[in-house]
Design brief:
Blueprint: H1 22-25, H2 27-33, E1 82-84, E2 94-100, E3 103-111, E4 114-123, E5 130-136, E6 154-162, H3 171-184, E7 191-198, E8 206-208, E9 215-222, E10 230-236, H4 237-245, E11 253-261, E12 268-273, E13 277-279
Parallel strand pairs: 7-9
Antiparallel strand pairs: 1-4, 2-3, 3-12, 4-11, 5-10, 5-12, 5-13, 6-7, 6-11, 8-9
């Protein structure tokens, strides 16, 4: 996710990074858009949670991400999940259903590539704030980090977008958001939170995408400590949003996605994702 600008992603309070060439640097924001035309007694943050299937029913009118299990054949895309292309000048990441360690999961293979896999949802984070997801990574480049705009590759991300009123933007951010819509056709949501497996960032570290304060990263796995293992995460999305953005979620969750990219470091990267689900 790099260009010729020597911009650096800074801590979540930073808004000083300059705008870059729009054709080169809009893919991460498009990833955040995921739009095409058309705590206490349950678990601590970051603590391993129950298996993917151990979730409560969503309230009436809600629609969660469709499961990978039973949602298609090996080698196909899971039912209800759609490719999300951010840069048409780069090859897309390849996603397909596969069997891994006795269950149906999505395998993501990136070869100097970037694209995501998205599912449209309708979730009230106040009623069902707990996000359950699992991923596995066997290798990671130690240079990769969302803390550096030129090294912003990650073998595994889970992307959550929120609707809400038009956000208050600086002039620079307004120009950037308009550029995203002009060059990609994607309208950015009110806010985007990405859970990341980072190559070097500290656990629970928060980083901001340098061109928009409405796109922020939260590191939930880091480095090589758990490579080759399934990492089960149970996150209170409402509390994470409050901590990352400094305010409660203003609206509903509209999109959930997975993302594996390797275009900055020009490497190959592979990850596996288990079912994603929300519970009360």
């Amino acid at each position: 996710m790099s260009d010729h600008t020597d911009a650096r992603t800074e801590a979540c309070t930073s808004t000083s990074a300059p705008l870059a060439q729009p054709q080169r640097r809009l893919w991460c924001a498009a990833a955040a858009g995921w739009l095409v035309a058309g705590c206490a007694p349950l678990a601590r943050q970051g603590e391993a949670g129950p298996p993917d299937s151990a979730t409560a029913a969503l309230p009436t009118g809600s629609r969660g991400p469709l499961p990978f299990t039973g949602g298609g054949d090996v080698g196909s895309l899971p039912a209800g999940w759609h490719p999300h292309i951010m840069r048409r000048d780069l090859p897309p990441t390849h996603y397909e259903l596969t069997r891994k360690d006795g269950r149906m999961v999505v395998q993501a293979d990136a070869a100097r590539s970037v694209s995501g896999l998205r599912c449209d949802v309708n979730i009230d984070p106040r009623q069902t704030p707990w996000l359950n997801f699992s991923w596995r990574v066997d290798e990671i480049d130690p240079r990769a980090t969302v803390a550096d705009d030129d090294l912003d590759d990650a073998p595994a991300r889970v992307v959550i977008t929120f609707d809400g009123p038009p956000p208050k933007l600086t002039l620079r951010e307004t120009i950037f958001h308009e550029q995203v819509e002009l060059f990609t056709g994607h309208v950015l949501p009110h806010a985007t939170l990405m859970y990341v497996w980072d190559g070097q960032g500290p656990l629970e570290a928060i980083f901001q995408y340098p061109r928009s304060s409405r796109i922020r990263y939260l590191v939930v796995d880091s480095g090589a400590a758990h490579l080759g293992e399934w990492r089960q995460h149970r996150r209170n999305v409402a509390l994470d949003y409050q901590r990352v953005f400094g305010e409660p979620p203003p609206g509903r969750i509209r999109h959930v996605g997975v993302l594996t990219d390797s275009d900055d470091l020009r490497i190959q990267s592979r990850a596996w994702f288990g079912d994603l689900s929300f519970s009360a």
